[in-house]
Amino acid sequence: MALLHYLSYVGSIAAFLFMTLSLASGLLYISELIEEYSRSAKLIGQRGTYLVIALHALLYMFDSFPLPQILFSILCHAVYLQNFSSTWPLISLSSFSFMASCILAVANHFTWFLYFSRVSREVRHSYSRHRGPVTEAPGFADIAT
Question: Where in the cell is it found (predicted)?
Fold first, then answer.
């Protein structure tokens, strides 16, 4: 079994390397498409961002997500839209909108991580007190979405 154990490490490393190379190749291909079809890419990017803003509003209405986090996410996406300026696809890495987008992307993910970890912790805590879950904890797929 020792050889199998070491082979599993080699297989895991190989899979990680292949996934990394595939992701890098895909991102390079997408960047070339954006350069070649910049007008279409800008339109798709803007419409996609508006769609995400609409989905946040729907999550608030139908799933009762907390309003402060929803409003913060919408604000973040409004800042992301500023990167689709008249100079698209050229984005200055020192511009306020780009730096704010990077900071807000991390802050937005961290905010939602804290929300879902609190909800999961509350469900686990209620489960231990009442011998069964009072509410259903969000699954991995729900949180990842």
Answer: Membrane
First-residue to last-residue Cα distance in the chain:
38
Q: How far is CA 54 from the centre of its chain?
A: 16
Spell out a b/e string for 105-137, using b for 16 or more CB atoms within 10 Å of the CB, else e: eeebeebbeebeeeeeeeeeeeeeeeeeeeeeb
For residues 103 and 99, give the distance between their C-alpha atoms in angstroms, rounded to a whole number. 6
Q: Could you please report the per-residue DSSP string of 112-143?
A: HHHHHHHHHHHHHHHHHHHTS-SSPPP-HHHH
Contact 121, 133 (CB under 8 A): no
Please provide the DSSP assignment of 32-98 as one string.
Answer: HHHHHTHHHHHHHHHHHHHHHHHHHHHHHHHH---HHHHHHHHHHHHHHHTTS-TTTT---TTSHHH
Q: Whole-model pTM?
A: 0.77
Residue 125 φ/ψ, nearest 5 degrees: -65, -40
